[in-house]
Design brief:
Layout lengths: L7 H4 L13 H13 L6 E4 L6 H10 L8 E5 L5 H9 E2 L11 E2 L1 H4 L4 E5 L6 H13 L1 E2 L8 E2 L3 E6 L3 H7 L4 H7 L2 E4 L10 H11 L6 E2 L1 H8 L6 H15 L4 E2 L4 H4 L25 H19 L4 H8 L3 H10 L8
Parallel strand pairs: 1-8, 1-9, 2-5, 5-8, 10-11
Antiparallel strand pairs: 3-4, 6-7
Helix pairs in contact: 9-11, 13-14, 14-15
């Protein structure tokens, strides 16, 4: 089997960048951004589809910065009941509500001097968004049931798989909160947008499991690179664990993949692209031609799907977030304009 050996910092568990695996341009650029921005105190918004590794970016921004020795505190805003989120974030005093038998600091206080990672911030209720905005603007929090202001020094990193601009249009997200969070943006690509990283990620996850790591033939790896991976890196990690459980230490060929993969997509020969028009002596504007071609295909797919973004993305073989970014760049509305 052909082996592509990754650079040391990609797989070495002792390295702070050990968990950001890949050699694609997208991942290489994100590594460079992390190195450049780690010491900044500015808020960061990490966007990208679910399972793409947004939490890893947040951890690395903390680990590589001047706050690395201080706490890294994470809060998944979608995993906490809306009526409990305020208490989780800001803490509460004894007797503030039923069951609050003693005072408890919130995540802002716990992260003092370090980093607070707010995952899935796009799922936060609008009433809670106003309270978060105030805390970000004043750098002061008040516990639920309390009256004393508590000054906090935290760097806030937020992450979302939601299109926050669309959420603002729907009235589900505050634009002033977005501007406060989106000082610096890092966009994580879906795994299907960086297929060359799949073999490295497979070896990385296999090396973390107990026992002799499972391996794959070149033909199997080629098929795996062509899979859509809707669950992104998280789905690939689960796949490797499943493969290790079924075939520990073995070399897996392409014929075994249908048993291991959910929604296996067999290899399909791609038709040859049409021959281009002859290039004139004066040359062409290839960038403009490609943009026009993208615009035409996206507009047509939107028409076919009745303007549904998710269905359009599926027609075009794109991640939903990738399509939304292309539509924004090409000034395409959901009505096909």
């Amino acid at each position: 089997m052909d082996m592509i050996m990754p650079a040391r910092h990609e797989l070495d568990p002792s390295s702070p960048l050990a968990r950001l695996v890949g050699t694609s341009k997208a991942i290489t650029d994100i590594r460079a951004e992390i190195e450049k921005l780690a010491d900044s105190a500015a808020s960061v918004l990490v966007t990208g589809p679910s399972g793409s590794g947004k939490d890893v970016v947040a951890q690395l921004l903390h680990q590589r910065g001047r706050r690395a020795a201080r706490p890294f505190i994470a809060l998944n805003c979608a995993a906490v009941a809306p009526d409990l989120l305020e208490s989780e974030m800001f803490g509460h005093e004894a007797g503030a509500f039923t069951g609050a038998v003693k005072a408890r600091p919130g995540r802002f206080e716990a992260a003092h001097g370090g980093t607070l990672f707010l995952d899935e911030v796009g799922d936060m209720a609008t009433a809670m968004q106003a309270k978060l905005l105030r805390a970000l603007e004043t750098r002061v929090v008040e516990r639920v049931g309390g009256m004393l202001p508590i000054a906090v020094d935290v760097r806030v990193i937020a992450a979302t798989s939601v299109d926050l601009f669309a959420a603002i249009d729907r009235g589900d997200f505050r634009c002033d909160l977005l501007y406060r969070l989106d000082v610096i943006r890092i966009e994580m690509p879906g795994l299907a947008d960086r297929p060359e990283d799949v073999p490295l990620l497979i070896r990385h996850f296999a090396a973390l499991l107990p026992g002799q790591p499972v391996r794959f033939t070149a033909a199997a790896e080629d098929l795996l690179m062509r899979q859509p991976w809707p669950g992104n890196v998280r789905e690939l990690k689960n796949f490797v664990e499943r493969a290790q459980a079924h075939f520990p230490g073995e070399i897996i060929g392409a014929e075994r993949l249908p048993r291991l993969l959910r929604g296996f997509t067999p290899a399909v020969a791609r038709p040859a692209p049409p021959a281009p028009e002859p290039i004139p002596d004066a040359g062409i504007d290839l960038k403009r031609i490609l943009a026009d071609l993208e615009h035409a295909y996206i507009t047509e797919a939107l028409t076919v799907s009745g303007g549904a973004v998710a269905a359009t993305a599926k027609l075009l073989g794109l991640q939903r977030t990738t399509l939304i970014e292309k539509m924004r760049r090409l000034h395409i509305g959901t009505a096909g304009g």
